[in-house]
Amino acid sequence: MNQTAVKVRGLTKRYGEVTAVNGLDLEIRRGEVFGILGPNGAGKSTTVEILEGYRHRDAGEVTVLGADPARAGREWRSRIGVVLQTSNDVAELTVRELVRHFAGFYPRPRNPDEVIERVGLAAKANTRVGKLSGGQRRRVDVALGIIGRPELLFLDEPTTGFDPEARRRFWDLIAGLAHDGTTIVLTSHYLDEIEALATRLAVIAKGRVVAEGEPATLGGRASAKARVSWLEDGVRRTVETEEPTRTVLELSRRFSGEVPELTIKRPTLEEIYLELIQEV
Amino acid sequence: MSESTTASAAAPRAATTSLPGTLRVGWSRAVVETKMFFRERDSLIFNFSFPVILLVLFGSIFSGQVEGTGITVSQLYAAALIGAGLMSVSFQNLAISIAVEREEGTLKRLAGTPMPPAAYFLGKVLSVLLVAVLETAILLAVGVLLYDLTLPSTLSDWATFGWVFVLGLTASSLLGIAASSLPRSAKSAAAVITMPFVMLQFISGVYIPFTQLPDWLIHIASVFPLRWMCQGFRSVFLGDVGASLELTGSYELGRVALVLAAWTIGGLLLCLLTFRWKSRREG
């Protein structure tokens, strides 16, 4: 089987005078949870919508699951799952009715009750969608996105408006899907979410990929200087160093043992990200 | 290696053969659409009661007869309101509800699934058909019980009723689907669609006898299907005596069929050319 799920070369999209996507390259392998980060207006949504087959491109090559989304048909659609950003629809149907209805669109759907159970809505299966909380509705969206047993799942800002506990549960759900072999393309504004879920990610700014890699090493994150900080004579002291271990050993000798309020920090994904999008 | 080649070659073929058919998906859309329609109580009450209330209102205000024909004014209204009610459950209902579905993202979500687009339209038309049959039955019952409306007695009248109903409903449904792209947002949809529809009813002889309108309004009304639907229904319920009340002294059933058929084809073309699955905001 082809190991590439998504391949993009020189993708370009213009809206009138504005070039939203400007020669973007991207490659996503099967089985990856691929994060896409970028500020609003960077071309992130346009790119994802072109991959999903919602938008046409002006130039470039795009292959998603072996087909061109602009020309792919129903068979291709049945292998893709899409969870969009907003949804306030179908309030009058119950969760079970809606999930069963969508199952009928696909050739090999998952079992609707199992999917409802999996997104944690078993107790709400007979509740009308309009009566659910925002987070519960979002889980209905995910249920509809995965009911067709997709090989590739697009998740757009999936946890916006979740409380912290609901987000954790949601992450478990996504991790479980990835474990089953579903390739996942995740866009999010929450960097901790990308860090927790993504195996690789790309940062998009001004219509191009400005950095690509694993969350732990993106943009030289792992080799960046560490900040060692401690309390000495009632004053907080901080040094930036490429050898934090040596610094700590020296401190330990100086304090003959425990260093007061010691912390060692590498740059967070957020700091790296902000740096990356400012450089462009 | 040979195993995985066989597997990947077999998988797409299996998928192609087992994609659910348009009719099956269309039927399941119709079931879901109908459930949603009957569960949304506000619009349900509005849709069903509005023409009935108008009939009762007009029947009570204008209780006389049309001179020299033995036809009561309320009979005239009953026939016309069946036409207007039909256009209300199809044109008005679809144009507004699809505009709302477009903005709420229902359409975009459906477009992201392997649902055949034709199944969506099939579902809409089937559920509208059911609602139209129910509403017409209620109007007929009220008309017969309270306002001396007589049901058609001949097979040919029933046949006329049948084709005016089906052609009128189809043309109005397709027009409604096409018109759903006009409102700029879901909020404005009700106003943008209802205003011209109310005007159309006034100039199409639903509330005011067609013969009392100035020529230029008659010309405008004659372009649209409602005038012809009402004319067709009057031919069924008022009989030959009523023909003298028509503009040309005849029900012109041939022209009724022609205009409604033209709108059916034109409406279908409009839908195919203009239907958008995404809201205007999203480009």
Q: How would you explain this protein's 3D organization?
A:
The complex is a heterodimer of chains A (280) and B (283). Chain A has helices at residues 44-51, 74-77, 95-103, 112-118, 134-146, 164-179, 191-197, 244-254, 269-279; strands at 4-15, 18-29, 33-37, 59-64, 80-83, 152-156, 183-187, 200-205, 208-213, 226-232, 235-241, 263-265. In chain A, strands 5-6-7-3-8-9 form a 6-stranded mixed sheet, sandwiched between helices. The longest helix of chain A has 16 residues, at 164-179. Chain A is an alpha/beta fold. Chain B has 283 residues and is mostly helical. Chain B has one domain (19-281). Chain B is 76% helix and 1% strand. Chain B contains 12 helices and 2 strands; from the N terminus they run αααββααααααααα. Chain B has helices spanning 2-18, 22-39, 41-61, 73-104, 106-111, 117-146, 155-179, 186-203, 215-223, 225-237, 239-242, 253-274; strands at 65-66, 71-72. In chain B, a hairpin with a 4-residue loop joins strand 1 (65-66) and strand 2. In chain B, helix 2 packs across helix 6 and helix 10 packs antiparallel against helix 12 (253-274). The longest helix of chain B has 32 residues, at 73-104. Chain B is elongated. Residues 1-16 of chain B have low confidence and may be disordered. Chain A binds chain B through residues 1, 15, 52-54, 74-75, 77-80, 82, 84, 86-90, 92-93, 97, 101-102, 104-108, 128, 144, 148, and chain B through 4, 7-8, 12, 14-16, 18-20, 24-25, 28, 32, 35-36, 39-40, 101, 104-106, 108-109, 111-116, 278, 283.
Concise summary:
The complex is a heterodimer of chains A (280) and B (283). Chain A is of the alpha/beta class.
Give the H and E element order of chain B.
HHHEEHHHHHHHHH
Mean pLDDT of chain B comes to: 86
Spatial shape of chain A: globular
Largest sheet of chain A: 6 strands, mixed
Indicate the low-confidence ranges of chain A by residue numbers. Answer: none
How many structural domains are formed by the residues of chain B?
Answer: 1
Oligomer: heterodimer
Quote the distance from N terminus to C terminus of chain B: 46 Å
Number of strand elements of chain B: 2
Task: State the end-to-end distance of chain A.
Answer: 37 Å
Strand content of chain B: under 5%
Which parts of chain B are unreliable, with pLDDT below 50 for 5 consecutive residues or more? 1-16
Q: Give the mean pLDDT of chain A.
A: 90
Q: How is the main sheet of chain B built? A: 2 strands, antiparallel
Task: Report the count of strand segments of chain A.
Answer: 12
Give the CATH topology of the largest domain in chain A.
Answer: Rossmann fold
